[in-house]
Amino acid sequence: MKSRFKGMRALTAGLVAGGMSAFWGAAALAEDLAGQPTPGAIDLQPGVTSLRHSAIFFHNAILLPIITIITLFVLGLLVWVIVRYNKRANPVPARWSHNTPVEVIWTVVPVVILMFIAIFSFRLLFAYHDAPKADVTVKATGYQWYWGYEYPDLNVSEFISNILPEEKALAAKVPYRLAATEPMVVPVNRNVKVLVTGADVIHAFAVPSFGVIADAVPGRVNELWFRAERVGTYYGNCRELCGVDHAFMPIEVRVVSDAEFAAWVAGKGGGAPAPTPTALNAAANAAGGANTPPAANAPAAGQPAAATAPNNPAAPPPQNAPAPGAPAPAAATQPAPKAPAAP
Q1: Which helix (H) or strand (E) holds 286?
Q2: E strands, 199-340, where?
């Protein structure tokens, strides 16, 4: 019996070792592509942002070893119980029903494991929500079934990004159903904030290489951020079932240098936004403009200025208004009333 048990234990260990060797060997043979899926790969898609690096570390260095150890431990217990306590090997079963030390262990150990995982999990969640000051802001709107991108801080109006037709994708040697007609362009090594919303149904904006995903909900604006470390083209797609053409909503993000990004913005007719009145007033106050004496025709302190309607150049002139350049009509006069005659 002991020899058979040892044989099964050795067989189990050999199968586990062989499976792990095949797993890591296949992962090593497959050369992962940056920015798009790799055929035959089994590892996570490589990242080009700090968020993605942290997420991969959390999965590969924290979660995967813990899951592997727990799985092998449970598998070993199952094999041991099946071999040691089957009817043939143990015809007279034990009659005890409780074991306090074992019950304490299987209660405390999972709690400790979860607390250990929570340390890295909360740290990663904080990094996702602790967005730095944005260098570029992009508004991404999900439609059925395409994306619209707008750069409000750079005066770039919304442009539409559709799926690139298959014949054009094959001619350009880009992945079909991932390449788009108009990519979202961002500068390298800059903090990019993406405002995600939907126009009709719920969509989801996701780019695996950046490690970001956010739901595009109509009537609501979600926010995500990333900082791409390398120039290149990175693909994503809609991650929320949104209708019959859900599979035809690709996301293409092109990361370029600062000079190329400035040229792209200029080509889109954008540029630095005009200063707002608030910014102008703040600049004037900083320069001492607030200390200038008031104008002579300014209203007295505490008295509101008379409200005047803005002049609309497109509105027709009033019917009784004089023609431009014509002299003003004389004011109508009425004769003074005569005094009554004396009796």
Answers
A1: helix 277-286
A2: 203-207, 212-216, 222-226, 232-238, 250-256
In sequence order, which residues have a C-beta less than 8 Å from that of residue 237 and are 6 or more positions away?
Answer: 177, 178, 206, 247, 249, 250, 251
How far is CA 11 from each of CA 7, 76, 79, 89, 200, rounded to the nearest angstrom? 6, 12, 11, 19, 57
Distance CA(121)–CA(62), nearest Å, equals 10
pTM over 0.90: no
d(CA 43, CA 57): 12
What are the residue ranges of CATH 1.10.287.90 in the chain? 2-129
The label of the residue with tokens 């089994």 reads: 42
pLDDT in tens, 33-87: 888 989 888 889 999 999 999 999 999 999 999 999 999 999 999 999 999 888 8
d(CA 47, CA 55): 9
Distance CA 89, CA 99 (A): 22
Question: Where do the CATH 2.60.40.420 domains begin and end in the chain?
Answer: 136-267
Neighbours of 42 (CB within 10 A): 11
Between CA 134 and CA 21 the distance in angstroms is 44
Does domain 2-129 sit in CATH 2.40.30.90?
A: no
Query: Is there a contact between 141 and 201 (Cβ–Cβ < 8 Å)?
Result: no
Q: Supply 224's token pair.
A: 């995500």
At 21, list the tokens.
């060797």
Any idea what DSSP says for residue 299? Answer: P
CATH code of 136-267, in short, is: 2.60.40.420
